[in-house]
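Predict fold of Alkyl hydroperoxide reductase C; 188 aa.
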Amino acid sequence: MASIINQEIPEFSADAYVNGEFKTITSEDVKGSWAIFLFYPADFTFVCPTELEDMANHYDELKGLGVEVYSVSTDTHFTHKAWHDSSDAIGKVNYPMIGDPTGKITRGFNVMIEEAGLAERGTFLVDPDGLIQVAEIHAGGIGRSAKDMLRKVKAAQYVRENDGEVCPAAWEQGGDTLKPSLDLVGKI
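Predicted 3D structure, encoded as tokens:
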């Protein structure tokens, strides 16, 4: 499998449910700011609403960092609205819920479960150039943490803004970074 890191997001145009309205979102709309794509198997399920609610609970902080969140499943935008209207957890979601009934976006990010017509539990952090900087895929029964994704956003933004520096494992904002050089080889 070829790496998706530093690859441009696939071109797409899709309908989404956003803040009580239907809206068309394109890959071009995504470029110019940071974005998280949160793929999940299906609306009206079990782990999925806990993940979308967790992301909703961190959405204001992400927006403050210039990050837009896009949840994506192979359900339609109509189904997203029905789920939003009927679930207390999903009712908290203010970020775009993209419908991908053809699977074009899901396949473009290489997270389609072909035999089921559903998305894997995939998370992608995209930089303002439209390039994927973080890609994670979880098994269906393993929920994701928005808090950990928030940490990765901060690390990716730091690395982008501080040429030549890298963030070590479990780096938190304000923590020590590294400047790779010959002097560090074998000293860490």
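Residues 167 and 176 are 8 Å apart (CA to CA).
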